[in-house]
Amino acid sequence: MSSTIEQIKEKLSIVDCLSSYITLEKSGASFKAKCPFHNEKTPSFFVSPDRNSYYCFGCGAKGDIFTFVEEFESLDFLGALKILAERTGVKLNTYKSKEEEKEKTLNQKLFEAMEEATVFFQNNLKENKEALIYLKKRALDIQMVNDWRLGYAPDEWRALKSYLLEKGFSPETLLKAGLIKNGEQGSYDRFRGRIIFPIFDGSGRTIAFTGRILKESEDKTHDAKYLNSPETPLFEKSKILYGMQKAKFAIKEKRFAILVEGQMDLLLSHQAGFPNTIASSGTSLTLEQITIVKRLTDSLVIAYDSDNAGQNASFKAWQLALSSGLEVKVASLPRGFDPAEAVKENPSLWRDAVEQAEHIVDYYIKILKQSAEKEADVLIKEKILPLIRSLESSIDQSRFVRKLSFDRGISENAIWEDLSKIEIVTENTGNVEKKLANKSDSLRKAISFLFYLEKKNPQEAAVFKQKLNDIISDTDSLILKKKGEEVELIFEAEMHYGNSPNDKASSEILYYLEEEILKEKLAKAISELKKGETEKDLKKNEINMKEVDDISKKFRELSKKYFN
């Protein structure tokens, strides 16, 4: 395994790997970007070609190409290894000894069971004319059927179960994979009589299924039209977007993502030439999914059914997307059409809808113009104002406030007043963002620069340390405390100052450190002065006033001290 990892690293640099996911900018000998693992406005994510690693000053994310792909794609190590091996053309050793077979992890067994199930469904589709006719009627090309590994689950109670048991899988593994379920008369197949859409992780491994019923019964409450796999160790529904494994690079290239509701909508959109399409599989977009999209683009085009039911059900999600900094647009289709039907009827109908997509606030303001007075008031209160309030940019908020004011003849002040009463929609982020590291203080920068100088130029380090001692009295103890982070701190300094630290960098660090300390002292002195005035202690007031004056004088002289 280690030789495989080394081969991959030799063939794929960290810059080439990461630049296919995020936009990197040259910064001295390194590269920088907005961190894909937490929301930020200014770049704090640095990539070092020399070290073949990355580090984020904002959230502390760090590692190599393997840890990046694992985290970005939400994969385990083997999934990341599979992606990188395929990309570099390095062959993975598939031979396993008997001992290795015994030591397989639960997830490995589940992945193998899901792969065998996928093959089983694919083979059954080839033999089922009715299922193939259905897909043909939906205008789906056979190439798309093969590329996306569509299948068919026989309308039998235990066909898949029997097949997988013969392959050596245990009933416990099949239960944990969500392939079978328990009933009063024993376990049986979860999917029966359905067109099967495999759901893949970032490396293309099957982790779940969606089944679309082939023959709808007269009693439509008996069987759900669509059935999804349950949550399993491989599948967390809130963190997966159907089609992302194929769409991710197209999204980055085209700089926007198209979001549709169902699998068929997605497949026909890809078929029509929009490979940047992903699907929410009929559920509302979650914050985890929004975060995944935002790693690749700042623009999202919603293409849900034209009856607005899907959009209404997901309204909170659109607010979350806007507050996360995504630009959200709506692709409007003629009434009665969903994306799949539009592509089937006329691909140009779908293309026009995507190309003419408008900002979601503009979309609702356009509906507003066509609404009766009473309906318009409800639309403003329940849709438009909450969306404007959710916008991350105050400039965008102002633009839409002006537009709404002009269109409806309402004063801007009145709109702003109503906006201030609306709470911003938030959601518990869970593990979406890393806990932000406390790295904003000037002292940390000073210590990291000192470690860096000691490595580059010990004489300059000694001079810098003496200056540092003049500002803080416990330099040696602070250095001792930070020794365990020395490698990380040197990396930080390298990212900021390159391979040639200079006097200007040294002066800036000491200036900001002393400024920070003086600010703290001034705040404390002013507090004491106010306290003395309250107590009417004249002597104490005189001492405090002198201290405030002394600190203020040091502030005025600080710039001359370091930059003249």
Describe the overall structure.
- With 564 residues, the protein is of the alpha+beta class.
- The chain is built from 27 helices and 16 strands.
- Strands 1-2-3-4-5 form a 5-stranded antiparallel β-sheet, sandwiched between helices. A 5-stranded mixed β-sheet has the order 13-12-14-15-16, with helices on both faces.
- It is globular.
Largest sheet: 5 strands, antiparallel
Low-confidence stretches: 428-440
Strand content: 5-15%
Provide the gyration radius in Å.
30 Å
Number of strands: 16
Quaternary class: single chain
Shape: globular
Structural class: alpha+beta
Nearest-integer average pLDDT: 86
User: Order of strands side by side in the largest beta sheet?
Assistant: 1-2-3-4-5
Spatial gap, N to C terminus: 57 Å
Query: Helical content, roughly?
Result: 55-70%
Counted by DSSP, the helix tally is 27
Summarize the structure.
The chain has 564 residues and is α+β, with helices and mostly antiparallel strands. The two termini are 57 Å apart. The relative contact order is 0.07.
Keyword list:
564 residues; 55% helix; alpha+beta; 27 helices; five-stranded mixed beta sheet
Mind sketching the topology for me?
Blueprint: H1 2-11, H2 14-19, E1 25-27, E2 30-33, E3 45-48, E4 53-56, E5 62-63, H3 65-73, H4 77-88, H5 98-102, H6 106-127, H7 129-137, H8 142-147, E6 151-153, H9 159-166, H10 171-176, E7 180-183, E8 186-189, E9 194-200, E10 206-213, E11 226-228, H11 244-254, E12 257-260, H12 263-271, E13 277-279, H13 287-294, E14 299-302, H14 309-313, H15 315-323, E15 327-330, H16 339-345, H17 347-355, E16 358-359, H18 360-369, H19 373-390, H20 394-408, H21 412-420, H22 442-456, H23 458-471, H24 475-482, H25 486-497, H26 503-535, H27 538-563
Parallel strand pairs: 12-13, 12-14, 14-15
Antiparallel strand pairs: 1-2, 2-3, 3-4, 4-5, 6-9, 7-8, 9-10, 10-11, 15-16
Helix pairs in contact: 1-4, 3-4, 12-16, 15-19, 16-17, 18-19, 19-21, 22-23, 22-25, 22-26, 23-26, 26-27
